[in-house]
Structures are given as C-alpha cells and as structure tokens.
Amino acid sequence: MAGVAFRGVSKSFGAVTAVDDVSFDIHDGEIVCLLGPSGCGKTTTLRLIAGLEGPTAGSIHIGDRDVTMISPKGRDIGMVFQDYALYPHMTISDNISYPLKVRGVSKEERASRAAEVAASLQIGNLLERRPGQISGGQQQRTSVARAVVHKPQVFLFDEPLSNLDAKLRLEARGFIKHLQKRLGVTSIYVTHDQAEAMALADRIAVMDGGRIVQMAPPLEVYHRPANTFVANFLGSPPMNLLPVRLERRTGVTRFVADAFTITAEGWHERLQGRVDDGESVILGVRPEHLALGEADDPWSFPGELYATEPLGPETLITISVGDALTTLRIFGDDPPVVDGRVHARIQNTNLRLFREGGERIELG
Amino acid sequence: MQRRSILSLPAGLLFLLPAGAFVFVFIILPFFWIAAVSFTNRTLTGRTALNPEFVGLANYRRLFDPDRFFNSGEFGASLILTGQFVFFSAILGQAILGLLLAWFFYNHRGWVQSTVQTLAIVAWIMPDVVVAFAWFAFLDRDDGTLNQILSAIGLGHPDWLLALPMVSIIMFNIWRGTAFSMLLFSSALGSIPPSHLETASVAGATGLQKLRDIILPLIRTHIITVLILITLWTFNTFTPFLLTGGGPAFQTEVVSIYTYRTAFQFFRFGMGGAVGMVMMIINLAFAIVYLGILRSQKAHA
Ligand SMILES: Nc1ncnc2c1ncn2[C@@H]1O[C@H](COP(=O)(O)OP(=O)(O)OP(=O)(O)O)[C@@H](O)[C@H]1O
Ligand SMILES: [Mg+2]
Question: What ipTM did this prediction achieve?
Fold first, then answer.
C-alpha cells in the first residue's frame, strides 16, 4: 500500500496545457475523486499516475518511489477505463486473470484467483462467458475485478459508471466504495458527476483548466467552497450567487443590490478589516439555506415566482431576482403554496461571501 | 424486426439479369469451355484447330506423367518453384514483413509513418511493366543500384537475374506486395481501441505479450483475409515473367508462366486447358481451407 504524490506536475500537448503545475498528496488508503468539467485535465492526471503519459515538468511519486520515469508496467497499478476495455476474445475468467498471466502465474492459480475475485464481486457464475455475452453492469464488475486481481498498490478509475443507467450507477457506486474500504487500497476516481464525487470520496479535488482549485473532504468543499467556480460546480442545484455592493459607512453593514437591500445585523464586526465600504462582493447561499420569509425580515429579499418543482421529499422553488434566478429548497412532504411575489430568507449562519474575482472571503 | 423486400421476386431477378448475363458470358462460359477443351487435343493451327478430337484424360496424364513430372520445365518442378515463391515472397515476405512494419509504425506514429505509407501506396499503384523496368535497372550487374551499394560495402556484385533468378523474383514480389499487407494490417491495428493496449500496459504486459495476447487475436480475421488474398495473388501472378521470362533454364518458371508457355508458346490449347483446370482446383483448395479457418474463428468469437 502506498500514497500518491504530485510535485509541480505539468503536462502539455503542443500548445494545450492539460495539467498545469499540480501538486498534491493522496494518503495511503484514501479515495480521492477528481471532479471537474469536461476538458479540465482529469483523465490526463489519471494517465500521468498510470504512466500512460509522461509529465512535461515535475515529479510523480507512488509510496516512497519516484516513478516519473517508470513505465506503466513497473508502477503496480490497477486501472478501470471508461469503456471497460475487456478483451472480446477471452472469457471473463481469462480477462480477470490477465494481469496474473503476464506475471507468469500458473494456469490453475490464475483460474482460482479469478474465481475468488469474481465471486466477491457477484459475477462468479459468468466466468466461462465472453464480454459480449454479459450486461453492462457485469462488464463493469469484470473490469473492476481485473483491476484488483493482482492486489495493486493503487486503483485508478476513469468515469467507470458513465455507461450505466441511473439505477445501476447508484448500485455500482455503493459497491465501489464498499470494495475500496474493504481492500483499503489508495484510489483515485475521475468523475464529472458531483453527486458521485460527494458520495465516494474521502477528499474531492476540484479541477478547473488543468489546476486543482480545491482539495478537501466533500462536506468542506460543499459548505466552504474555495471560490465561486467550486460553489457553482457542486450541489444540485448549485449554490445561489447574488452579486451585491457592501455599504458599511453607517456602522451597520448592508448588502445592496438593484432589487433588494439586506441589513446584515451582527455582521459588521465579522467583516471588519476584510472588506471595504463600497466593495462589490458575491453572496453565496445554498438552496437549502433559503426559506420562505416575510417582507419585513431584514435577511429576506423579494423575487417573482419562476417555477415550482415538487421532488417528493423536497420542493424546489425558483424565483427571479432582478435578472437572475435563485432557487430555494424546501423540505417536507407538502409542497408550499406560493404565487406571485415571494420573499426568500437567508439563514445567515450559512451565508458565504466571495470577492468579485471569485475567491471566498474568510469571515471572522 | 421483420425483413421485408421492397421488390417482388420476379422484379428482383430482372434487375439481376444484366450482371448475371455478364458473369455468364465472361466467367462461367469460358470456364466450361476450358474444362471441355482440356479433354481435347485442340491447337491454334493445323488439323486439330478445326477438328479437335476428344482425348479423354490424355492431357492430364501427360501433365502428371511420373517419369518426368519433376524434370526441369515440367509441371511438378513448376509447382515446387511456385511453392517456394509463394512461401518466401507472400507468406514470409509480404505478410510477416507487412505485419512487422505495421506494428512498428503503430508504435512510432508521426510523419515517418505517414511518409512511408504514402510511398508504399505510390509504389503499389505503379503499373507492373514500369516496376519491372525499374527492377531491371535496380538489379543490373554493373550499373544497378543494388550492386553499387553491395560493392561499396564489399559484398561483390552478382548478376542477380542470371545467377540468383529465384531470389530476384522473390525480392521483387516482396517489394511489390508488402505495401498492401502493411496498409491492411495498419488499418486493422488502428481499429483496436487504444484502451485495450493501455489496460494491458497497466496490467504489466510487455510489448511482445501485448502482440501475442491482444493484438494478434483481435486482428486474426484480418490476417487470414490478407493471407488468402496474397497467396492467391502470388500463386497466380504473371509479373515475374517480365523480369526473367521464366528462365534462365526454367529456374523461375512458376505455374502461371508454365501455363502461358504451354498454352500460347506452342498453342496447345488442350494442354493449356488442363493446366488451367489444375491451377483452378489448387486455388479453390486454398480458398476453401482459408475460408474454413475464417469460419471456425468467427464461430469462436
Ligand atoms: N493526446 C492528446 N493530444 C492533445 N490534446 C490532448 C490529448 N489528451 C488530452 N488533450 C487535451 O487536454 C485537455 C484535458 O483533457 P482530459 O482528457 O484530461 O480532460 P478530462 O477532464 O478528462 O475531460 P472529460 O471529462 O471530457 O473526459 C483537453 O483540452 C484535451 O483536449
Ligand atoms: Mg476524461
């Protein structure tokens, strides 16, 4: 078992910089999700760890070895590709045990190890079939079985669930987390599905434009996003972002927008020395931290009802504030009846502030 | 889903008619004519040109006459030469060299690969006669490019077409056909998803293990197709005639040249027909064996 570390790693393809000066430490036994929009460099990061690409700059470490110059073969890694990459001409048993075959393990031992792993992944009855004869979910398990059969030091997953339907995805997600915890192998899991990342990860590394913008436990990334990009990327629907101007002259702090003014009682001291009078900032508040309020509540702001979406245990109410949309998440079985002008009240303990440039302002 | 034809059967047959007539007139009819001629003593000129006689299996008996079957210039000797020619130039040369080249370029992609492929296509589409002339120049004893290179590194300068005629036409045919195999194998390799090979790399496979365990099985049907095509082509090719004329002393008289000599040098059409029939049976045997392999592969996959 071993951790994985990047030290100032960059990777360019011609003029495109896919990974830009990335450094991180992934601890032994941890599962880290690389999360980010399409083209942000997740797959490239994973391929750098596997040795399928060589970095343009920096060094890569697995355990206490510097593997920067070592080929994939020497890195002791198990990898699951998005398309599973099962060999159509081999049986499931041969597919699973292929990493053992190239290591010169005897035929009998290969068969028994494949059977053992397959049984633990509930595909023990498929060993003699070929990949074309099993379902997508079973192919996914076969691919995972092949990645774990030789007990590698590191698992790499590149969007392994994106080919499955919604129900199977949930099932497979739980199963991967269970397996990872049981085996305790350091894992790096690429996804662009924020819910998957939240559910699986010990820590999430949010990537944007080849850089890691935040690497922290899921709830911290969720509740204390490093900037508006992260705030916007996580959560469904994402965090509401309301641009406002600060007014601090009078000894109280006000958030002033075209459509509303909020008097932030008790916040004057918290913002002391952190923001200036007249500065433009962005209020960030998750939908679940907004409630239906009254007009005279100092923490509420008005909007026009835009849509109501009852989802069962919760209801999403979207209102338009000025020319932007803001979403409220109201829990409870009975959807609230609203119409016309709606007042949204901010639960101010969960209010985040961002600078105009995007980064979060630490509050006192 | 139920398949429904857009045409009624008679209408469909009507559309088939022109092509069918063409095939009948130019392929089926000549085939039966040759089969019939091979049992006669028909010639181009003389009495038997007008009134060929039925001679039964005489032509075939003459062809397989055990007393002289393997004599130089006879059918048996010609078959042996053809076997050597096919084995070295088609199977060892074109197929294996083509596969190795394709594999090499698969691993070293870039401008070298595209340049070589372009040159290979250019070489492949050149007319036989032009190529044969180029090879005359290439193999010339005193001024040929090959001998100039060889003598520059001190390996002498043999008279290729006279002293080593078989080696010459084998080299020639390899040069002529490797491009085709290489291109076909290249496209076969290109159809393998990269993740298949990357998975194998991560699993710890060496280059040779990847070739043996992943690549060859995945392109098996392509390999068999290439083998069918190039053995049949090489078996039937007449181009060596342009270089050596089958000589010297029948040393390069492969069966296609033997057939030509029998049928058109002495205009003994009866004999020629018999040789043609035997060649066709051999070709058929090749094709059936290969197709059988192909079918059993498909059943496996
Ligand atoms: N082999 C390559 N040659 C050139 N550019 C590449 C190559 N591989 C990736 N890139 C570029 O590098 C950037 C990052 O690609 P990468 O595949 O890592 O993105 P990703 O985060 O995995 O995206 P996705 O979620 O769509 O899979 C992209 O702009 C991509 O076009
Ligand atoms: Mg990707």
Answer: 0.78
